[in-house]
Amino acid sequence: MITSINDNNKDFFQMVFEVVKLIPSGRATSYGAIANYLGAKRSSRMVGWAMNTAHSNPEIPAHRVVNRNGLLTGKMHFQTLTLMQELLEKEGIIVKDDKIVNFKAVFWNPMEELA
DNA sequence: GCAGTGACGGATA
DNA sequence: GTATCCGCCACTG
Count of domains in chain A? Predict the structure, then answer.
């Protein structure tokens, strides 16, 4: 459970980090899901923006965050283009053509898991 | 201060 | 199912 979500002292990107860090291995979520969980579903771009700053933080499993299509849109921001896919496959997530095949199965909804 | 841009999402055609 | 458009908020030039 994230207690800091309701803590307005933390910035938006900080809250995003908290959620992303709680994503279990072998699961993945979407920017929209996080944005929605944070009460800013209209600002899904902000989640992406937050992740942009997150790629510098080794504690943030950014590879588990993809867009609503399960597409690895941010793979280009990783150290290597294949790193994101490798990490996902390493966790049991099947990635094909830069997108998560069984995305629906591995989808991790913070609203349900953290509610 | 204005305009362009971005790891997106949803609605519409 | 694919293609476009718009909104969203923050950052950069």
Answer: 1
